[in-house]
Amino acid sequence: MSDFAWTIQIIYVLAASCFVLGLHLMNTPATARRGNQASTVGMVVAIGATLAIIVRQDIITTTGWIVMLTGALVGSVLGLYSARNVKMTAMPQLVSMFNAVGGGAAALVGIHDYMSAGTGVSAATSVTTLLDVIIGGVTFSGSIIAAGKLQGVITSAPVTFRGARAVNLLLAAVGIGLGGYLIASPSTGLLAVVIVAALVFGVSMVMPIGGADMPVVISLLNAFTGTAVAMAGFVIGNWAMIIAGALVGASGGILTKLMADAMNRSIRNIMLGGFGTGDAAAALTGGPGGDVKAIAADDAAIQLAYASKVIIVPGYGLAAAQAQHEVAALAELLESRGVDVSYAIHPVAGRMPGHMNVLLAEANVPYPQLKEMDEINPEFARTDVALVIGANDVTNPAARRAGTAISGMPILDVDQAKSIIVIKRSMGHGYAGIDNELYVDPKTSMYFADAKKALTDLAAAVKTLVG
Amino acid sequence: MYPALLVDVAIFILALWVGFEVISKVPATLHTPLMSAANSIHGIVLAGAMLIAVTAHNAVGYVIAFLAALFAAANVVGGYVVTGRMLRMFRRRPLAPTNVSANGSSANGHGDPGHAA
Question: Which residue, among A270, A253, A157, A268, has the nearest Cα to A213 in the 3D structure?
Fold first, then answer.
């Protein structure tokens, strides 16, 4: 190994160390920005080292330079534009698109390497190349479908048809079978078939998955992208790509597990079909009966204004109603009266892991008020009013009993608060399709209204009633 | 057999463990920025995209190199910018919209101001 190649690999490892440091600094909100900066420095160094390789080798054609630089320039502009302009509610779509292009680029690296290597490629390289192409291809098309579902361009309902599973199995068999054959005897034509099978598989994998399961799907596709990039790193022998890919794979894997646990579903169960398509578990519950108590704005406002401790429980309904700013305004008003206000954030509140925290941070809610489930649950017993906005299944005490659709799901212990106000448009069901026993609790009052309007009215009522 | 691949596999496995260790300490509050940060990190695929432009010598190769560079650059630039944008929104205390300076001594008389960053 030449001195130059040696130096470059060391620089790559240093750059990768910056990525690790960057992720490490994300363990508190106070240091997270520095983490992003450390990671950026690592990236600039790695790209600089790559440029040094290209210049030093000096075999790139002029067309090669032009192609590379225009591609990078156009991509940078597109990336910059979308990053600057994306609404925080649309973050899941953007993350999904970045997964798509990352996986796509990784697959293209593998495809190019396979085509230019010809027949003289070793079996070891073939295996990693095919894994790169297959995983990257699945990620590319799957992430585009996921983004389309999140954006509402494609229906977020699970799309299934008879024999869908057989088609998926066939596609997987084609991919793996042909892949195995290609390792023995390389052929560019057959590689194209593998690429098509991977792309179709990505589509057919994500189409049957319902909108509620998107946090898991995005996390899983994120892990796929990382793995594809690592495989591309194997193909071209680039340590920075191997390490970075492994880090992203680990991150995506952890988040996938956390999301699936928080939704009380196995990853296999999610991948095999949408919620509410075949589950007959709703019949098992046998509603608890009991009366629902409705409440008007004035009464709710008085309860809130004279409480000493209020916990706000936001769910996706809050984000869907675009009411983050209204809830923050109400919380600020209560705080100015000396009420202790915090937010109880369930892990799956929102459309991607941690989404609700970003939405509330954007609405100027200070992060010390954003409490994770395990941290806030013991506090409900000391809480005067729990204000539930657009959250349903994650507050249902039925999860603690066996035999319901959500049994065993981790929930927020909202029912332990001294009183509960639920802002909701109707008595409709959550994704699990079962009655929420919280709503018939004698301590609970239902405030039937759109979240945005309800919060505005509550704030106005607090102001007029108690000045 | 394949000593270079063996080294690569070892690096991959160790990096996976480092990833699990570091990322399991990230609080749920930051999971969206974490995923976005992971997104920007896999933008390192730009290095690979640049290197394939070196060996591209025909039309198909150039098209692949162009698309790869475009995808990877969008990934890396967009990823870092949007992560930074999100992280800037996480504040310990709310901005005071009416006050010119949020650095005031006792602008808001509630809570415990001892928590200043």
Answer: A270
Domain identity same for A187 and A221: yes
Contact map slice: A 406-425 vs B, CB within 8 A: none
Identify which of A404, A152, A165 has the alpha carbon closest to the alpha carbon of residue A268: A165
A279 touches chain B (CB under 8 A): no
Q: Which residues have a Cβ under 8 Å from the Cβ of A200 and sit 6 or more positions away?
A: A141, A171
Residues 38-57 of B with CB under 8 A from A: 38-57
Minimum CA–CA partner of B108 in chain A: A336
The verdict on residue A176 lying in a domain is: yes
Domain identity same for A264 and A286? no
- Interface list for A 338-397 with B (CB within 8 A): 338, 345, 347, 350, 352-355, 357-358, 361-362, 364-368, 370, 372-373
Contacts of A108 in chain B (CB under 8 A): 49, 52, 64, 67-68, 71
B107 vs A247, more confident: A247
Burial of A286 (0-12, 13-18, 19+ CB in 10 A): exposed
Clarify whether A393 is annotated catalytic.
Answer: yes
Q: Is A277 part of any domain?
A: no
Looking at the structure, tell me whether residues A244 and A336 fall in a common domain.
no
Q: Which spans in A207-266 are helix H? A: 214-236, 239-262
* Confidence band, pLDDT 50/70/90 cuts, at residue A265: confident
**A169, A247: one domain:** yes
Determine, yes or no, domain membership for A396.
yes
Task: Note down the domain range covering A12.
Answer: 3-272
Residues in chain A with CB shorter than 8 Å from the CB of B96 are: none
Query: Over the stretch A365-424, which tens digit does the pLDDT of each residue have?
Result: 999 999 999 999 999 999 999 999 988 888 999 888 888 878 888 999 999 999 999 998
User: pLDDT tens digits, residue range A19-68?
Assistant: 999 999 999 999 999 999 999 999 999 999 999 999 999 899 999 999 99
B92 touches chain A (CB under 8 A): yes
A351 and A255 together in one domain: no
CB nearest B52 (choices: A69, A113, A352): A113
Considering chain A, what percentage of its residues have pLDDT values greater than 70? 95
With residue A314 as reference, give the H or E element that holds it.
strand A309-314
The gap between the terminal CA atoms of chain B, to the nearest Å, is 55
pTM attached to this predicted model = 0.89
Q: What domain range is B52 assigned to?
A: 45-92
